[in-house]
Design brief:
The structure is a homodecamer of 143-residue chains. The first copy, chain A, is of the alpha/beta class and 143 residues long. Chain A is built from five helices and six strands. The first copy, chain A, has a domain at 24-37 and 51-128: RbsD-like fold, CATH 3.40.1650.10. The A-F interface holds A 1-5, 7, 9-12, 14-19, 59-62, 141 and F 1-5, 7, 9-12, 14-19, 59-62, 141. Chains A, B, C, D, E, F, G, H, I, J: It is an enzyme of class 5 (isomerase). Chains A, B, C, D, E, F, G, H, I, J: GO terms for molecular function: D-ribose pyranase activity; fucose binding; L-fucose mutarotase activity. Chains A, B, C, D, E, F, G, H, I, J: InterPro entries: RbsD-like_sf, RbsD/FucU_mutarotase, RbsD_FucU.
Chain lengths: 143, 143, 143, 143, 143, 143, 143, 143, 143, 143
């Protein structure tokens, strides 16, 4: 543990976020996502929700302001009537830390899997909400 | 995730507990314990308390009924006036899952470090209570 | 060994099943299947039958209820007159633990090999029945 | 699987037995033995009994005829009234395959642990009988 | 060394043959074959002939009875007048251990190389006869 | 790079500082220190001074307030007339970030080497000042 | 540290530059470049600027005099009005050490990424200037 | 060092040459060749010339007598007026040890690179002559 | 295979003998010797006798002429009436290749084991003669 | 290869010398020294003499000016009448590059071996002179 770093952030997760550059993507996946099968680099955060983790990392992690979208969500499968209320939670956290509305891209389920495969890392959580997987695209740190 | 397994238990932690045998010890360490320096096998559970983890693992993990003590706690350093209330929490959890009072050994600080070095594994948590490190000695599984 | 976990489940197999996510597949292969040649992750369970293993893992392992089929069997090669009675055994075990009839897909032999190559893991057994290889697709764990 | 090799013998176990030389020792440990903590080389045979394994390997594995004892058992802890009937089973299997009475050494519990640490390999089983751990000392293969 | 296992079989070779399944192939290559360049798994048997090895392994290794051919030989390059007498030796050994005539496929030189690349293992010998490379396809072990 | 983390801190250094616990030590070594020979974990920061690094890490890294000394410096070798002015720089930086005077232990040269060997990590710099090696003992992070 | 070698050059960077041959490329990347994601071999030089590193390595590193271009820069994205003054700095350093004007190729952003992926190594810096990534193509050392 | 083996041959080079089979190729590359970038297996012989190495290895290394060419040289780039006198040196060494004129293939520069990538090994020297890279194709050892 | 190198010498064995220096020892062990348990570096030569190997390696391997003994044999255990005729075979081979009588040291069985543990390598054979283990101490190669 | 770095210095040797610190030792060993058996880090320079290497590295490698001796040689074994003329060569090279007479320590043969074991690295050459092994103790690089 260090001062100013929330204890929920594992040393490996911090290292990975520091290594990432402009345009690299990180996925925060729910508890049923096939994270171990798809991840280039896997960070396990068993027992935590995605929102807890977003709140911890967003003070450090800049979102991409150049790209058209800096946040990716899995779009509801056609025919599914679920309304993912977790998205509002995500939007609030992002707005709170990033100071502006998130630029969100909705990604079809299988396209989402392909994006996850190419992401720099996947953080597996125990999030139990539906449609709770989220991709963040890293932005630029300026002096 | 699997049915009947609490999501807070990481796959690696479950594997390690299954591998352990009679008399092997596992340490659940607080957030300031030098776990990475001392552990033969390290399982990180950043962001969690020790009690949360004990509640999750004790339904699976048998305590040693043969040994004089199946639980080790770090004894209060002479001169220190703190009264570790977390110990009561531990006793309750152990009693609840194990059906009997924990047989506790109090271990001097530096002896505790030596025991931790020899333990089969150390689970590092973000527990912030004082004197919150605990050693469990594994017992026997009978049919 | 742990309480509540059948001893036939190896620590590695438990870890692998916990790591798997929604849609990931696991193959339980008979003793003559080329498991070592095809497996991304190989778990050896020499000396056991597939049915013994299914009985042990199904209380933990959820089958996919979203996919059209959650179970895959190798279809009888055209011209072969064998009637694989082992399938009835599998259906009974699955029905007993999953509470409903298995949704079975029959897969042509060489397609089965391709599926096995892509599976998250292959569990090699010493099952001696014919047409005894089986693929399980993992479902979702809900609270 | 190969002809003439019982399927319960894993490829790794066969390789290890072939590598062993005169005087090297192998431990067949019960399900509660701390095998993973002590083994130089660990072979997991979860779900099997020690007797099943002895029956499979003794046609191949020569016992030491030069040493005073070729078999080691853990002696009953003083005060313990248990009578390990499994020992008779072991003696019968050894006599059947080796053609003569086993030369058995009884080893005090903690000395047994030390011997296990130095053994060439430990085979972990799910044997549930008491005092069921056994050490075999390898003999010489003659033309 | 073990009883009943010819000493020429290395522990690694035995392990590899046990791991192989139905349809997997193993190449016994002569001393000039580029084994190290092509092998997925390489077993060196320097100083031995192919025939010595076939005699040792065929009592254990079942040939495929389902496939059209269970044995592959490199066909004589067009224009080459050599008559590979070693083939008769191979046929005799196979007939002796397998109880029936070998079903031999003749493979063009460069096709043979491609098959060797995909084989489960290549065993490199010091065989000096011409056209002495041989592929065996593993069959099924039945109770 | 991340927001709020000085770019001079490498991802590996941050990870290591997060992994360290109460009482673990880290050495910031000058450019001529035999860091690679002694380090359990080596972090290279070629081209930087020790002071630059202390300024970057001290906002995150708590010094031990329990131990008698939280900072170690190599004492001037008897007979050497050098007065290490770099020490004043270190004291100022520590006082600035830690809010109190550093509790410094002066360590004889060869004892210093032994301490460095046991430290959790050594950070090698290109610091060119004399007697510029410094050991920091990690303290406790409290809520 | 060695005589005649600037301390900013890490041992790993020197080794890599020595290993490179005629036509191999090395990228010096700014602090936001996704170096860890793209590099075959990654050298971290956190806390330094690209210019500092160029000044250190150019006395040793020959630029390619055979190729049409020995230096690559990322061309300004169409529509972007920034004028990268850092380029003048690079040109001066190259001219100073190489004795002639740099032969510069301007590379479209995504082509630059592809070149970086194929480069022998990427050196990640904390350079904060815009359009500051630079590729050097290694030339020939003559007696 | 061994009797009858020239000391310039490294243990690794000898092992690699022994492992190679009929048709495998080895490249002896000059000091500016990008050997580390292209080699499947790299043997460094810094400080030596190609000719010194050829003289040492040719008494052991048979050239291919079956292939149309057993030696490959990089053809002079069109427009380049250099006359590679080193080739005569190579021809003499090969003739001296192989007893007949070398069958040389001239390979266009970029085709040469592709061949080098596929070679069993590349030996990097400090040869400073132009057009000094050479490929040897291994032949057959006969009794 | 190479010209002038007997095919029975494996590439790894040749590499190991080349790496050894003055005073380093190599053990050629019989088929029942616990080679895998004791060897720092193990070379398997299954299926061969020790004499075959000595004949192959002695033209290359210099025996130590400085040490009091350059050859070690295991002395007959007191009470054992066996007369190891294999020793005469060894003496003849050594005399033939080394040009003088071997300077033999007889080593008590357990001292022999200790020597084997410290040897640079152990070569395991399938030699079946009694008391057939032999240690060679490497000498100096002179121009 | 790089400008200003002699080609005889391998990339690995340069890296190792850069990593070494004040007081670390490096051994340049002759061709019969048991380098591979004793080295923590081994750099092979087969085919070269020690003097060639000293000439190449001494412009970069500072000798220790603080220690009583910065150079170690193996003292002539009592009774041996050889006069190692190579020492004069070494003294000349050291004086030429270091600008002053070498401070030489003569080390008894077995003490030399112990020093070599603890050295940061051993460079194995093919030097054939007697008593040609030499230890250099690294000094300090000052601005």
């Amino acid at each position: 543990m260090l001062k100013k770093i929330p204890p929920i952030i594992t040393p490996e997760l911090m290292k990975i976020m520091m290594e990432m550059g402009h345009g690299d993507e990180i996925v925060f996946a729910d508890g049923n996502f096939p994270s171990a099968a798809y991840a280039k680099r896997l960070v396990r955060c068993d027992g935590h929700t995605v929102t807890e983790l977003l709140e911890a990392i967003l003070p450090f992690f800049p979102l991409d302001t150049y790209a058209q979208h800096s946040v990716g969500l899995m779009s509801v499968v056609p025919g599914d009537t679920v309304v993912p209320t977790i998205w509002d939670e995500y939007k609030q956290v992002i707005a709170a830390y990033d100071g502006k509305e998130a630029k969100i891209e909705f990604i079809e389920r299988f396209d989402f899997y392909e994006r996850a495969k190419k992401a720099y890392a996947i953080v597996s959580t125990s999030e139990s909400a539906l449609y709770a997987n989220i991709i963040l695209k890293k932005g630029v740190v300026v002096d």
